[in-house]
Design goal:
The protein is of the alpha/beta class. Helix content is 35%, strand content 15%. It has seven helices and six strands; from the N terminus they run βαβαβαβααβααβ. The chain has a six-stranded parallel beta sheet with strand order 3-2-1-4-5-6, with helices on both faces. α1 packs across α7. The chain is globular, with a radius of gyration of 17 Å. The two termini are 31 Å apart.
Length: 202
């Protein structure tokens, strides 16, 4: 592919997500030419930096999911950090976030707040168990979801004990499906000028 003529050149993405699923989606957007700004918490940064053996402040996972992005470290609980994040959100074509249900609203960076100043934004929300339902407030990780979905029950050791598969299959597949949905929304925006709130879960 011609690196000077990538399909998402000119698209601005604000990546507020952490871990793997959201950041993996953002990495693929960056590989297709989007300008992806990754906001990381101060201190330890995105928790993908603690997945696996660290070398400096990176791991194999963090290198993969943040490839091609620009990174800023800020405290979104601080008024100055919130102000800058809101400025970036106001100019973004796409926003990615995977905060637990109800948390992003406290920062003033939820879909309704962003849409009020950026009506055509494409806003991706990834949760563990969805934004509604009896499990909506439960935390979730790839390992939790491998157990919950029954994946572990079909991957047993020699003693018959359920085991997680030794890769983050649910996180990575969620990131790919999220990319597919964001790509469709970008096409819709190009054709009709409309934004969209995309809600998905692990």
């Amino acid at each position: 592919m011609d690196q000077d003529d990538l399909p998402y050149a000119g698209i601005k993405v604000l990546d507020l997500s952490q871990g793997v699923a959201g950041p993996y989606c953002g990495m693929h957007l960056a590989r297709q030419g989007a300008d992806v700004i990754k906001l990381e918490p101060t201190g330890t940064g995105c928790w993908s930096r603690q997945l696996g053996k660290p070398i400096g402040d990176q791991t194999a996972h963090s290198l993969v999911v943040h490839r091609g992005k620009r990174s800023l470290s800020m405290d979104l609980k601080h008024p100055a950090g919130q102000k800058l994040a809101k400025q970036l959100a106001a100019g973004a074509d796409v926003i990615l976030q995977n905060y637990r249900v109800g948390k992003i609203e406290k920062l003033g960076l939820d879909y309704a707040a962003v849409r009020a100043v950026n009506p055509s934004v494409i806003y991706l929300s990834i949760t563990g168990f969805g934004a509604q339902g009896p499990y909506r407030d439960n935390p979730a990780t790839d390992s939790v979801m491998q157990a919950f979905t029954g994946m572990m029950s079909i991957n047993r050791d020699l003693n018959g004990l359920p085991q997680r598969i030794n890769m983050l299959a649910i996180d990575f597949s969620t990131g790919l499906y999220a990319l597919q949905a964001v790509s469709a929304a970008l096409y819709r925006k190009a054709m009709k000028g409309k934004g969209q709130h995309i809600r998905t879960s692990l």
